[in-house]
Specification:
Elements lengths: L1 E4 L6 E4 L2 E4 L2 E4 L4 H6 L8 E8 L3 E7 L6 E7 L2 E7 L10 E6 L10 E4 L3 E7 L3 E8 L8 E3 L25 H4 L11
Antiparallel strand pairs: 1-2, 2-10, 3-4, 5-12, 6-11, 6-13, 7-10, 7-12, 8-9, 8-11
């Protein structure tokens, strides 16, 4: 597995090896030993899967008390995935990074995104539909769940809305009630 640095400290793009032949392909997308040797968490407690239609924006979500690290993989479709550093002691506090994620990158390799605990996470669906699978380091903790508005003026995330014909993304009622970064209760 190859591990690539990103513009935000501790967020990593992961590329597991894929073995292909005339029958198809095989890839070991998670191995406790491989993750440990790469300095990544190797203990996950929950797998989540979502199916969304074009223009759906989920996030920006995070949890207080029981923060979740997330290993994100797109099974079908195309998303713009965003991680925002909420760690007050980080050199990248308040910075975000966005990634085009698909089942395979332009080189035909699988890519996954590691987002550590202490980050807000969200994604925008750019294809007709998308299925996203992610492993978490802590279970869902409703009491600690928080949301920052996707269009927060301080964060100024450059969502690729031109890919949607500049339509306003569809968000859940809960996400529409998110808070501004400047007044958010942070970890």
């Amino acid at each position: 597995m190859q591990v690539f640095e990103t513009p935000v400290t501790d967020v990593k793009l992961l590329q597991p090896r894929r073995f292909a032949d005339s029958r198809g392909w095989f890839s070991e997308v998670f191995s406790q030993a491989a993750f440990s040797s790469a300095g990544l968490p190797s203990h996950f407690v929950q797998d989540n899967q979502s199916y969304s239609v074009r223009g759906v924006l989920r996030g920006l979500h995070y949890q207080l008390g029981k923060p979740q690290g997330k290993l994100v993989r797109v099974l079908s479709g195309h998303i713009w995935d965003v991680a925002v550093d909420l760690r007050r002691n980080s050199p990248d506090f308040g910075r975000w990074a966005g990634f085009h994620l698909k089942p395979f990158n332009d080189s035909g390799e699988i890519q996954m995104l590691w987002i550590p605990e202490g980050f807000a996470h969200g994604f925008l669906v750019l294809s007709d539909t998308a299925e996203v699978l992610y492993k978490t380091t802590n279970p869902y903790y409703p009491e600690g769940e928080r949301t920052i508005l996707w269009d927060d003026p301080t964060l100024q995330i450059t969502w690729p809305l031109e890919a949607l014909g500049h339509l306003i993304p569809m968000v859940s009622p809960k996400d529409a009630q998110g808070t501004l970064f400047a007044s958010a209760e942070l970890p």
